Amino acid sequence: MMKKNFLMIYFIIILAMLAGCGAVEDKGASNSGGDESGKTLIMATSADYPPYEFVDTAKGGEVQGFDVDVANHIAKKLGYKIEIKDMDFNGLIPAINSGKADFVLAGMTPNAERKKKVDFSDEYYAAQQLIVTKDKSIKSVEDLKGKTLGVQLASIQEKEADKLLKNQKFNVVKRNKVTELIQEMKSNRVDAAIIEDAVAYEFLKKNKELSSFALPNTDAAGSAVAFPKDSDLTNKFNKELKKMKEDGTMDKLVEKWFGVKK
Ligand code: ARG
Fold first, then answer.
1. Count of Cβ atoms closer than 10 Å to residue 146 Cβ
2. What is the pLDDT of residues 183-238, one digit of tens each?
3. Which of 68, 149, 180, 194 has its CA 20 to 30 A from that of 46?
4. CA–CA gap between residue 150 and residue 87 (Å, rounded)
5. For ligand 1, what atom is nearest to the CA of residue 46?
6. In what residue span(s) does the Ionotropic glutamate receptor C-terminal domain sit (predicted)?
7. For residues 112 and 11, which has the higher predicted lDDT (pLDDT)?
8. Ligand 1, from 49, 117, 124: best to mutate by most atoms within 8 Å of Cβ?
9. For residue 33, is it left (φ>0), alpha (ψ between -120 and 50) or beta?
């Protein structure tokens, strides 16, 4: 009798394990083509970037924002569900390359270096760069001399700081999250930070002691969705992005999150 019970439990455990495996396989990050409808795609993002993606603790702590709405719209059209994984910005491309994410939506700019590692969709939004500071004596790039400038690790803003360093000396600090840069500016450990316009405005609204000015000689930086190389999702997303631009959905989302009519 004892032995029989034991066998039963053993059996149940094995069954439970098998069922568990099935669920994991369904979870995406393993997109191999064919009919994927109803499956879950894993979206990786870095939710330190309002209004693109941020966590509003007052609203349940879920990641929300422009990118989340864009992703949900496209996923719905394509018959996918989405699960969001929040991580540091510098972990996003590795997440794609290691199969932990099916795509990245994080206000990410498609540049040559990244294109070696991942594929990008068409661009869906473009931004300019600003210098944000609490220090009223910093009014131009020249005033950064000898100061400490913050940038997000692995971002294109990091590259902008390198360019500025060619002409003058200042310290560069790199942080995983834009929210850390804001905190450190408020506590005077960082004098200024390079942040893109829409994101900077969100932080300026909430932190009245901060101000900003345009970073000169920079091109508009677009945002695009990143995918594993040769993913069949790239084309599917591009088709939906095109439709969103044509039928006014994109304009509506831009107005909702950036407060501007295009
Ligand atoms: N557009 C910049 C880049 O691609 C910054 C993006 C930062 N995004 C974020 N979710 N923190 O490097």
1. 10
2. 999 999 999 999 999 999 999 999 999 999 999 999 899 999 999 999 999 999 99
3. 149
4. 19
5. 10
6. 40-260
7. 112
8. 49
9. left
Q: What share of the chain has pLDDT > 90, as a percent?
A: 81
Show the tokens assigned to 17.
């394990």
Which residue type sits at 144?
L
Q: Check residue 39 and report its DSSP letter.
A: P
Domains of the chain are 40-126+223-258 (3.40.190.10), 129-219 (3.40.190.10)
Pocket of ligand 1 (CB under 6 A): 46, 48-49, 52-53, 89, 106-109, 152, 155-156, 178, 196, 221
Residue 228 vs residues 106, 179, 180, 234: alpha-carbon distances, Å: 15, 28, 29, 9
| Residue 252 Cα distances to 50, 82, 125, 166, 247, angstroms | 17, 21, 13, 41, 10
Helix 249-258 / helix 66-78 crossing angle, nearest 10 deg: 160
Single pTM value for the model: 0.86
Q: Which residues pair with 245 in a beta bridge?
A: none
Query: Rounded CA gap, 185 and 94, in Å?
Result: 29
Q: Which residue has the tokens 């083509």?
A: 33
